[in-house]
Design brief:
Blueprint: E1 3-7, E2 11-17, H1 19-24, E3 30-33, E4 43-51, E5 56-62, H2 66-72, E6 82-86, E7 98-104, H3 108-120, E8 129-133, E9 143-144, E10 158-159, H4 161-165, E11 170-174, E12 182-183, H5 186-195, H6 199-202, E13 205-210, H7 213-226, E14 230-233, E15 249-254, E16 257-262, E17 269-271, H8 272-275
Parallel strand pairs: 7-8, 7-13, 8-11, 11-12, 13-14
Antiparallel strand pairs: 1-2, 2-5, 3-4, 3-6, 4-5, 9-10, 14-17, 15-16
């Protein structure tokens, strides 16, 4: 372990030396981490950043249960076993050059990774907007954005400083009353921005999202309302994370009818409309 930083709300950002994982990681993929020698079950954590050059990966997690509580006590210099990268990542489409990235809670990391990959893509046309929501303090120090975003409701000016430094616009949403944030769900902020776009602009938008299942369901409804494609990264409990136990299986609509897919290896990224069909709410 190279670094371990604590944030409010029982959240931590951990940086681990893992050259092989870093070299192959894609936005949307995850790593399966050992938390402690006395806890045999690993924990799946989405990759937030990866440096193939320097050989590290960075992950954000929130303490939920004894496993991640044990991981939070690890210190720089400790050995942490990593399996990864695992899973299918997000698929970008050049004909949709205005991606709308939506992250909720510990679903924020894949959005940071995806935004950074777009920034690093030489000659690519990407013009992303990143929206993040949280009901506990964000795992970073917010600040007013220096980037104007037409269509964002007045007063929503708080951003992730790292993205601002990359010249990627971002905005934050919460119902907890944090200064500069949109007062409401992140999906409501997304809908407000989409409603302000022209038909021509909407034809260039694709949504990418990760977060709790209710947020992803709401995101799928927003995407369907505005007739834009949407990919979601599912958060599920996993045991093996390599497709053997099928404990993370979810129902997905396919051309042949409903089928059970394993989130770990068939996902975690799926077409939102196959996971949340119209009658799903």
């Amino acid at each position: 372990m190279l670094d371990h930083v604590a944030w409010d709300g029982g959240q931590y950002v951990i940086r681990i030396e893992a050259p092989q994982c870093a070299a192959r990681a894609l936005p949307g993929s995850f790593a399966h981490l050992s938390c402690d020698d006395d806890i045999p079950m690993r924990r799946p954590l989405s990759i937030m950043r990866a440096s193939a050059r320097d050989g590290w990966i960075e992950l954000l997690y929130k303490i939920v249960g004894p496993g991640l509580a044990a991981l939070s006590r690890r210190r720089p210099g400790d050995l942490v076993s990593v399996l990864g990268p695992i899973g299918r990542g997000f698929e970008l489409h050049p004909e949709r050059p205005r991606p709308l990235l939506i992250g909720g809670g510990v679903g924020i990391p894949p959005m940071v990774f995806l935004a950074e990959s777009m920034r690093s893509a030489l000659g690519a046309p990407w013009r992303p907007l990143v929206l993040m929501g949280s009901e506990i303090p964000f795992p970073f120090r917010t600040k007013p954005s220096t980037i104007l975003v037409p269509g964002i409701p007045p007063g929503a000016i708080a951003c992730l400083p790292l993205l601002d430094a990359w010249e990627i616009p971002s905005r934050l949403a919460t119902r907890a009353g944090y200064a500069g944030c949109f007062d409401g769900f992140v999906t409501e902020l997304a809908a407000a921005w989409l409603a302000a776009q022209s038909r021509e602009r909407l034809a260039e938008v694709e949504i990418f999202a990760c977060g709790p299942t209710p947020m992803l369901e709401a995101t799928a409804r927003v995407a369907r309302r505005f007739r834009v494609p949407c990919q979601v990264s599912l958060e599920e409990f996993m045991a093996c994370a390599v497709g053997g136990c099928a404990g993370c299986a979810v129902q997905v609509e396919t051309p042949a009818g409903p089928a059970m897919k394993r989130v770990c290896v068939d996902g975690p990224v799926f077409d939102a409309f196959t996971v949340f069909p119209p009658d799903a709410g």
